[in-house]
Prior knowledge:
Blueprint (H helix, E strand, L loop, with lengths): L1 H21 L15 H11 L1 H17 L7 H22 L12 H28 L5 H32 L6 H5 L7 H24 L6 H20 L1
Amino acid sequence: MGERVKTGVVLFLLYGLLFALSQLVQVVPGLSGLRLQAMLSVPYGLIFGRTGAIAAALGAAAAMAVTGGNPNFIPIEFLGALLSAYLPFRIWQGMRSPQEPYLCVEDQRTGTMYFILSLIGAIPMAVFPAVGGDLYQVVPFPASYPRIFLASLVCTVVGGFLVYSQAAPRMFRGAREALWNRIRDTKGTTRSMAVAMLRITLTGGFLGLGLAFIFPNEFELLVVEYVMGIFAALLFILTAV
């Protein structure tokens, strides 16, 4: 327990620092920075599990408060960071096999899986602040979501891959033994499952983007409430199982 707390504190400070730095350049003024913290979301979840997800959420909330952000957005950033790290972790936990306990990005199959998980992590990182901006009448959802989603997508997929590819082997590697040779299991995450997940993820991720462009004047408070309710229910189900 003591080591977990120490790890959590370090992860909390690192995430909070990156969040604060990202706020220096505003992608959507008054609402969102560069989303540099998204680089840590998926690695936090896949490497540290619940500890990483909780550290990310607390780090986002603390950094939002310290940097003088709108107090209404503290719980929104908290939930966005929590889901961004926790969703990929829970999905991988449900898919992995005993022979492949960790996702080691070494071939096309595992690379595809990481790409999918990072797409999933990017969605709440973008949806929550965009919905919150509409909810509190700061910036309309159609005006904020495309820019926040693009920033979150780049940082989560590209930045997250760079972080994970460097951090994961150091955390998981056995003594004098190649990690990939130790955990290789071609029956774990199959390509067909990866393709199916990719389709689902792309559909969900770009649905909001398409709606923002097609129906820019149709977003009302009811739509915002439904979106937040769906994510809250999803978070409750995932943490309960």
